Amino acid sequence: MKLKETTTIRIRFNETDPLGIVWHGNYITYFEDGREDFGSKHGISYLDVQSHGYVTPIIASSCKHKLPLRYGDIATIETTFENSPAAKMIFHYKIFNPDGAVVCTGKTVQVFVDDSNQLSLNLPPFFESWKKSKGLL
Amino acid sequence: MKLKETTTIRIRFNETDPLGIVWHGNYITYFEDGREDFGSKHGISYLDVQSHGYVTPIIASSCKHKLPLRYGDIATIETTFENSPAAKMIFHYKIFNPDGAVVCTGKTVQVFVDDSNQLSLNLPPFFESWKKSKGLL
Amino acid sequence: MKLKETTTIRIRFNETDPLGIVWHGNYITYFEDGREDFGSKHGISYLDVQSHGYVTPIIASSCKHKLPLRYGDIATIETTFENSPAAKMIFHYKIFNPDGAVVCTGKTVQVFVDDSNQLSLNLPPFFESWKKSKGLL
Amino acid sequence: MKLKETTTIRIRFNETDPLGIVWHGNYITYFEDGREDFGSKHGISYLDVQSHGYVTPIIASSCKHKLPLRYGDIATIETTFENSPAAKMIFHYKIFNPDGAVVCTGKTVQVFVDDSNQLSLNLPPFFESWKKSKGLL
Questions:
Q1: Is A24 in Cβ contact with D24 (below 8 Å)?
Q2: Residue C60: phi, psi to the nearest 5?
Q3: 3.40.1080.10, 3.40.50.300, 3.40.50.2300, 3.10.129.10: CATH of D4-133
Q4: pLDDT tens-digit series, residues A27-50
Q5: Integer Cα distance of C94 and C79 in angstroms
Q6: Which residue in chain B has the smallest CA separation from D70?
Q7: Where do the structural domains in chain A lie, given as residue ranges?
């Protein structure tokens, strides 16, 4: 079983470049849109994480582009949680254009840092509880 | 006498829009570039202000556009400090294109908020000292 | 009678600054969100305008800030069309926080430029028709 | 022999997030800064490529984060051209903080698309000439 959510966005004029397509760096923002929407729906948003005394900086991100998106396009972000045993939050992304074709795929990796600025080597207790509540542990 | 500084920027690809010109919202970033450069040169940068226990949120900004800027253009920002008696930092901006023509003019107004989150109605002491040191008081 | 639309946005993490509040330049993006939403609902979006052979560059924008917005806030943008006789599109904006308080007010002015890059001194025919259809002429 | 250039940037206030560090998506902009500076110095900038009738969309990008950057930091981007036999432009990036420590590493891959919107499977003639002029062919 995979935890997965889909999020709809509309491409802004200011997100496109002189070629008339979304500037590649903006996909990182769309990944964040997807991740945040996933988090809101599953109780693991940035604000949820912070309420437990942790922040979750991104340590790696990647994106592979297959097709362009244009101004005004309604795109769909599919955000999938990878159930890794590590003390990390790993998300995979697929973005689809209005025709349902895959525009890009991507991945982000986050670690847990506690409020004394220490990297967690083990699952923080709140995250362990969350995984259990979702049937992932 | 007016305190004034000029700052050179190079227009980034990702700052331009499908019309091939700088998206209008990015001029607010250029104003910040000019203001920060002014601040660095005159000891009144954001970090200087913070070291005295204040932050200076923007309460008003405006921009009038006359000509476009394009990707790769080397533009010049002229940032002028307005010597107002109010407990405010007021800057005026002119941006010039590579031919020396005025691309836009603008203005920002900042207030002083202290570390107990109170708006300063009078000049903060550090700002009064700064104005004296610049011959503005 | 005033043409007016409201648009709901959710403040993104990456739109906020080290003070934990929305960076002031991002309000220009929110104004564009409101204007585009208004345009979509009333048949006068950027893509509609372009389909008639015109572009509508912004020649002036301004914003007055009264309260901050924070990450995760659901804000409401109220976009009002000003029925000016000039060959311009003028919009006024009010953004409200989740408590209904006014966060900022703003204004943008756009002109019409045709596909031979000439500024329209008179109302373009499509815009005149649009105004009639909305009871504004 | 590797073609490599270094570029100095100053971190803007609006590039940092509520944690006080650069928002991860902005590193994609810094990579573009490094790539463009490399291009300007070596005659292979985006404008050079376009003058030969090609555009070079990004098909993949990745970034690994090791340390944060903060507002006001002077960072150095090291951009290295990978001499691949493929019809691609591949760049590797290292960004260093003011202490000389590696902040992040990254990579981008670009393809060549000609003015009839066709992907080039072979090296475009101008790119072949450029590689010869640099001793890479």
A1: no
A2: -155, 145
A3: 3.10.129.10
A4: 999 999 999 999 999 999 999 999
A5: 7
A6: B47
A7: 4-133
